């Protein structure tokens, strides 16, 4: 069958292209017959017990089969989205590969839902009003998932930035510990040859005591707030 873009009408026949997981599914429909050109679609339809085996009845059933497949996949994607959101906010997600993969699958589901929505509008006169409404609902849910997933990467980047800020704060605080020591070392470096004699002087010990106490207090404080 030649490639068609969703719906092509010619002499009362409709050449239809649906999509599932991004793969095309073809069928031809008219008031007198319906022909399934895709093996996957034929297998899905043959597993169902169809009460109305007329072309209209089969067409309606095909739409519900597709909606069931899309809805099942979308429900799974929603669950994966929530799980990934929890991993991001808890800081357990270490890279963006899973976000990119999930986003790609969500966009595929949205594309499939867009196709069947477009087809349902073109064939609305052959479908029940309930079927048309269900297709519209499916499209809106897929659109909502796309919108939510668009924020997922931004949330991830925000969490990464927060982690980096936390690391910078810790490194800055740790550097404070060495500042008093560096200051004292610079003072004694002026008279390096007499450092030993200077250090054993009791006046030097008194001078160093506040520095040592401050260093110890900083270490205790940083350990208490879990920055060391």
Automatic annotation (TrEMBL):
One of its GO terms (cellular component) is plasma membrane. Its main location: membrane. It comes from the Archaea. Keywords: Membrane, Transmembrane, Transmembrane helix. It is found in: Cell membrane. InterPro entries: CorA_TM1_TM2, MgTranspt_CorA/ZnTranspt_ZntB. The keyword Lipoprotein does not apply. The keyword Transmembrane helix applies. It is a multi-pass membrane protein. This is Magnesium and cobalt transport protein CorA. It comes from Saccharolobus shibatae.
């Amino acid at each position: 069958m030649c490639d068609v873009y969703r719906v092509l009408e010619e002499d009362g026949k409709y050449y239809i292209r649906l999509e599932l997981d991004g793969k095309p599914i073809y069928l031809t429909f008219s008031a007198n017959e319906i022909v399934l050109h895709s093996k996957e679609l034929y297998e899905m339809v043959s597993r169902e017990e169809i009460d109305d085996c007329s072309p209209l009845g089969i067409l309606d059933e095909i739409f519900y089969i597709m909606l069931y497949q899309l809805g099942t996949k979308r429900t799974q994607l929603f669950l994966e989205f929530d799980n990934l959101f929890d991993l991001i906010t808890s800081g357990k997600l270490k890279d963006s590969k899973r976000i990119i993969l999930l986003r790609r699958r969500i966009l595929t589901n949205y594309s499939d839902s867009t196709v069947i929505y477009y087809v349902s509008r073109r064939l609305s006169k052959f479908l029940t009003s309930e079927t048309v409404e269900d297709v519209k609902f499916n499209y809106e849910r897929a659109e909502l998932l796309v919108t939510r997933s668009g924020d997922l990467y931004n949330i991830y980047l925000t969490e990464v930035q927060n982690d980096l800020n936390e690391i910078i704060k810790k490194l800055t605080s740790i550097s404070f510990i060495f500042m008093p020591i560096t200051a004292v070392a610079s003072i004694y470096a002026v008279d390096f040859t007499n450092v030993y004699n200077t250090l054993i002087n009791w006046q030097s010990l008194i001078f160093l005591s506040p520095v040592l106490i401050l260093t110890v207090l900083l270490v205790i404080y940083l350990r208490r707030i879990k920055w060391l």
